[in-house]
Amino acid sequence: MSIDTAKGILGDATIAELEAGLRGTVVRPDDAEYDEARAIWNAAHDKHPALIVRCAGTADVIRAVEFARSQDLLVAVRGGSHSIAGFSTCDDGIVIDLSPMKGAFVDPGRRRVVAQAGLTWGDLDHETQAFGLAVTGGLVSSTGIAGFTLGGGVGWLLRRHGLASDNLTAAEVVTADGRVVRADAHEHSELFWALRGGGGNFGVVTSFEYQLHPVGPQVLAGLIFYPLAEARQVITGWREATKRMPDELTTVVSLVTAPPLPFLPPEVHGTRVVAVIGMYAGDPAAGEASVAPLRTLGTPIADAMGPMPYTGMQSLLDPLWTAGAHNYFTSAFIEPTDDTLDAVLRHHLATPTPFSELHLHQLGGAFARVPAGDTAFSQRDASVLLNVVARSPEADGFDGHVAWARDAREDIARHGRGAMYVNFTGEATEDKVHASYPEGVHERLVRVKDTYDPTNLFRLNQNIRPSA
After folding, report:
1. Which residues of 129-157 are buried (b: 16+ CB within 10 A; e: fewer)?
2. pTM, rounded to two decimals
3. Residues with Cβ within 8 Å of residue 311, at least 6 apart in sequence
4. What percent of the chain has pLDDT over 70?
5. Phi and psi of 394, rounded to 5°?
6. Partner residues linked to 225 by β-bridges
7. Residue 361 and residue 213: Cα distance in Å, rounded?
8. Neighbour count for residue 360 (Cβ, 10 Å)
9. From CA 1, how far away is CA 98, in angstroms rounded?
């Protein structure tokens, strides 16, 4: 897009007036930093917004929301920019970029942190681990805290301490009419309920207050790789082992193509394998007995499970998930029956690129003990979350990779419940969003949407359409 196009949409004086009311900055299409500023983690979405507002604080967010509403602009809200579905950018609209807002204020006595929405999990872990505290964070440290939390938040502390959203105690929100409200169990309680799993539908969350827990600094964590020939034995053995695991241990089975890691034998590089990944969120010595069954699921190619810093586990997978690749995720809550696991293995054999994977996330524990009606995240009785990942460095052929992921998801989940995890959703059509919430929960979310965003200003998300 040229600057003339942006001016044609908004008017030069209008843009100048917006900028004069900000402490942050406006990035225009003809600015030198525009291409860098518009880029997001998922290169599958190459959009050209008319303006990017880099917000320095809540006041800038209010100004940007008011401007977008007055100019009838499409709004994209950006935190860490990891949105799989590309919601953190748009064509011809305005990007409200929260990434400069990186304040974190830890109260170790109350075990609370107030965290601004531009933080990534790497940023927040850095602050909270200084006090030996943590909250359930992302599986990749460059993921932003904002979208992750609003969609639920699945991480290595899930079975010990629940989802990130389960640990949210309050949020500061700029609503569609430019108001700033605090949402917690006592004020704007219905909004607070909706924010915990309902996504970015209801306003721009500028800060999050979390309950923290003693974690680390050392944990027992890592990966164990098994050969493809033993895959069926490994995943069925993992299924049985999960029935006896303590809450301190959270695991994931990842069916992958072996990356060129130094601790893997060179002859397995580039071949299909099964990785069992886990973290014991307690004393590492006490966790040895709990992780022992993971070491005997088959004949390990490599065992890289051992004591490490919690921040090391939080960033362990970062080199495999750098920005700039084309990504598509799709997900389902499933039960790991024999037929389901056979389908998982079948589609692992058909992965279209060395970077495409299938993940089986263990649920249960603290995640399952939250009453279903307490938050908008409602799939508490599922035992496994399936994530199907199509990933490629190149755009060429990517549509075919996406088709593989969609087919795999539909085949594996055909005996499941139909619900997706909204954070692992590469597309958000109305029927898929609706199916991800029980009927009563969806109706309640619509009522909250009617109250706080009746015109659907915030619609670049897993959208809950207002009744009007």
Report:
1. beeebbbbbbbbbbbbbbbbbbbbbbbbb
2. 0.95
3. 122, 125, 126, 129, 141, 216, 217
4. 97
5. -115, 150
6. 275, 302
7. 22
8. 25
9. 22
Residue 206's identity, in one-letter code, is: T
Count CA within 13 A, CB hemisphere, residue 202: 32
**pLDDT of res. 399:** 96
Distance CA 74, CA 463 (A): 14
pLDDT value of position 1: 43
Neighbour-count burial of 266, counting CB atoms closer than 10 A to its CB (0-12 exposed, 13-18 middle, 19+ buried): exposed
Locate 23 and state its tokens.
Answer: 């402490």
Q: What is the share, in percent, of the chain residues with pLDDT greater than 90?
A: 91
Average confidence score pLDDT of the chain? 95
Mean pLDDT over 282-308 rounds to 96
Q: What is the pLDDT of residue 276?
A: 98
**Mind listing the pLDDT tens digit for each residue in 386-444?**
999 999 999 999 999 999 999 999 999 986 666 899 999 888 788 888 888 999 999 99
The pLDDT of residue 201 is 97
Token pair for residue 169?
């105690």
* All residues at 6 or more sequence positions from 327 whose CB lies less than 8 Å from its CB, including other chains: 41, 42, 43, 44, 84, 389, 390, 391, 426
The answer to whether 382 and 417 are in contact (CB under 8 A) is yes
What pLDDT is stored for residue 415 in this prediction? 65
Beta bridge partners, 274, equal: 226, 255
Going by pLDDT thresholds of 50, 70 and 90, the confidence category of residue 9 is low
User: Rg for the chain (alpha carbons), in Å?
Assistant: 22
Tokens of 111: 């075990």
CA dihedral 152, 156, 157, 160 (to 10 degrees): 110
Nearest-5° angle of CA 296, CA 360, CA 253? 30
